[in-house]
């Protein structure tokens, strides 16, 4: 949950959700302002019309009589009017007193006032005040309580719509995130398949002219170029390796014949040395070819259900005597009845390489451990551990490179292809290989899904 909350998907959902809420709030406020503004505009027009139809303000007596007559003629009117003298005493109108703080500038103000003979309680009114020639005040306005009723209804309706929009906005955000994730997942799936060694995979195109389609076309063009270059490189290296094996094989046969036909001990020793180097070169070429074939995915079809426990036991019996000759011991453990679908020959060779390295770089009296256990979700974990000097974390990347040899290993026989072959075999099974600290020594783990 914590990882999901920090993901870009959650951020995208929140962003879309907030944008939809902001849009709904903006629409609500706009409609409210427009409705209320129209009600105020109409009330101001009515108030201005009322003020314009009153008698001459220079005759306060006639003005008061006209106001009184109008209120009597229309007792249910929405009119708000008040005429006071210089001392603030009421001359005529339907207000008990002038509102406090209302300036005499003629501008309209929205107030809550209680009229004489009006509804019970204060009402929302629009009023304006101006000073009369005799020093009194004339306050004119109109009740807008009923005019605001539609605005309140619209506001309530919009608020209900906004509450309904909350789950819809969340649903829309989730759907949008799923659509984006689905497009990204197709690209990621293709990239993962290519990383596993299948260079023929391509991102499926939907035919849309959008950013994802542009990205997919770019990725496909890149993958096509990579497949072409890797294919050419493999063709050259495989051809070179095959071409070199034939003369080396002939050279090895010639050395055997020369060794058998000479009686000179010095010459025999020299020929034996050359034969050992030729054998090492042949093994190097064979291993390089096997790595190339594994990285190319050749051998996936040869995988079958394998008794892993039996494979571990066979390797332990094969390398146990060799470990004793080097003053070390080989221990093994495997889950009884453990089966897994794998390429038995290649996995066996990979484990044999690891055991050979463990015996070669382990210390006298040390223990080499070979293990196989079932991992989570049906996976398989194979491990070989020794008690030697190990490999420092900063040097592990170099140790995994093809023909990569660290300084202590240069004093031993080898070509630096053992770990590369193990990594290639793990990749052939869509798995990984990790180098871990065995405290002391090195622990190499193959994770096969």
UniProtKB/TrEMBL annotation:
Residues 178-231 form the HAMP domain. It catalyses: ATP + protein L-histidine = ADP + protein N-phospho-L-histidine. GO terms for cellular component: plasma membrane. Gene3D superfamilies: 1.10.287.130, 6.10.340.10, Histidine kinase-like ATPase, C-terminal domain (3.30.565.10). The lineage of its organism: Bacteria, Pseudomonadati, Pseudomonadota, Alphaproteobacteria, Sphingomonadales. Its EC number is 2.7.13.3. PROSITE patterns: HAMP, HIS_KIN. It comes from Sphingomonas prati. Coiled coil: none annotated. It is found in: Membrane. GO terms for molecular function: phosphorelay sensor kinase activity. Residues 239-449 form the Histidine kinase domain. This is histidine kinase. The keyword Membrane applies. Pfam families: HAMP, HATPase_c, HisKA. Keywords: Kinase, Membrane, Phosphoprotein, Transferase, Transmembrane, Transmembrane helix, Two-component regulatory system.
